[in-house]
Structure formats: structure tokens, C-alpha cells
Amino acid sequence: MKTIAVISMAGGAGRTTLAATLAVLLARRGREVVALDFDPQNMLGAWLGLDTLAPRGIAKALTDASETWHTHTWRSDEGVLFVPHGNVTLDEAAACDAHLAAHPQWLERAIGEIALPESGVVLIDTPRYPSRQAQQAARAADLVLCVCPPEPAACGGFVAHLPALREACADVRIVVNRLNPAREMQRDVLAMLRAAAAGLPVAQRIHMEAALPEAFARGGWIVDEAPQSQASHDLHGLAEHVDAWLPALEASLAA
């Protein structure tokens, strides 16, 4: 079992969308997938098919010692085992942060309780980095996918926080999301991003696609509703990249 954290340094980077789509595409490739929502926004379930935001989830286990997060899991129609975050009040969110600060390996231990085959994968959706949740996810991960739109503010955040992220996880790869090559500014930012990345691999570039929110509104996936779109090809490319990384890592660990 391997763990992948989906992280971004900017809000609105499309992190949750990518985490959900990647979970489904890996499940379609025969992988056992657990999608864990570690973001207090509690939105990952909406992408995976829940009609309402999950009222309870892993956050409850952080604030109530008698609660176990295993009781709140749910399996999607695509076969993805989903662990919701759960709705929290401001006071509960503060209590979650305090518990994570006091127990820096809490998430790593929780993931260790998941019984998956060696070929399985845990995908973690996180809030914006830096945060307690994102930091614990990075530390627990075998691979961090850092989602970065080609925008100046996102690139600035990436440059500022990349050293700490690389210290938390040895394998960090970039996913450039919402790419619009027609915008000259984006081409300039991409050049800045490549320079700041200092040799980090780019897992995939994913183009902007207007049909994506429409597919979500209908409860579908862009890869099904617009399979010939560039974004669909890009998303399949990201799934292929991760799928190829998984057995390669297993082989290196067995060597």
C-alpha cells in the first residue's frame, strides 16, 4: 500500500477535483483505492457521489476519543472507499488543529490501520499548504503531487513553501493545472515554475476545460462526458503516470 498526498500552496488550484478524478481513474485500472478527505471544507465526497456533505468523518475521531473514523467510510459506485472529513464548527476545527499539533504522527498511524493490498493506494485531499493537515499528509506520503496553476500568486506560494514540503516528503512532483497556453502570462509563469522547481519532475500538465464544471453538475466525469478533450487526455496521463510509479516503487523496495 502506498500513500499519495494531493497538496497545493494556493486556494482554488483544483486540488479536490484532481484527487477525486485520480481516485476514480486508478480504481478503473484495477487498483484498490482509499480516498481520504483531510480538508475541513469537506468537499471530496461531493465529487465522489454524495448528495450532501458528510456530517461525520475523520474529524470526529480527532475531537472524540471514543470515536473511530472507520465507522464513517463509504464506497462509491466506482469502487473507491471514501473516508469523509465531516462537518466541523469553528471550535471543533480549532480542537482538530490542537490535536494534530500535539500528535504529529496521528494521520500516519491512522493510515497504518487501513488494510489494503500492496498494490493499493491511499489518496489524501488536503487543505491549502501550509496547514496542520497538509503537513501531516506530506509526512505520511510516499509521493506528494503538488498542484500549481500557472498564475503568479500560486507560483510565489510554491517557491516560498517548496523547501519545507521537500523536507516532509522525499518524492514531490508537480501537476500544472488549469493551463491555458494562449495566455502569454502563463507561459512566463511556467518558465518561473520550472526554474523554481530545481529539477522536480512534472507529473502532468492539465489544460483548462470549460466542460468540467458542467460534468460535475450532472454528476459525471469529464473523462466520460468529453473523452476527446485535451483535459481528459491530460487526466488519463496523470493516472498513467501514477499507476506506472506504483509498481516501480514496489520493485525498488523489494530489491
How would you explain this protein's 3D organization?
- InterPro entries: Cellulose_synthase_operon_BcsQ, DNA_Partitioning_ATPase, P-loop_NTPase.
- Pfam families: CBP_BcsQ (PF06564).
- This is Cellulose biosynthesis protein.
- By secondary structure, the chain is an alpha/beta fold.
- The protein contains eleven helices and eight strands.
- It has helices at 15-28, 44-48, 58-63, 90-102, 106-112, 132-140, 152-168, 184-197, 211-217, 222-225, 230-254, and strands at 2-7, 33-37, 74-75, 81-83, 121-125, 143-148, 172-179, 202-207.
- The mean pLDDT is 89.
Describe the SSE topology.
Blueprint: E1 2-7, H1 15-28, E2 33-37, H2 44-48, H3 58-63, E3 74-75, E4 81-83, H4 90-102, H5 106-112, E5 121-125, H6 132-140, E6 143-148, H7 152-168, E7 172-179, H8 184-197, E8 202-207, H9 211-217, H10 222-225, H11 230-254
Parallel strand pairs: 1-5, 1-6, 2-4, 2-5, 6-7, 7-8
Antiparallel strand pairs: 3-4
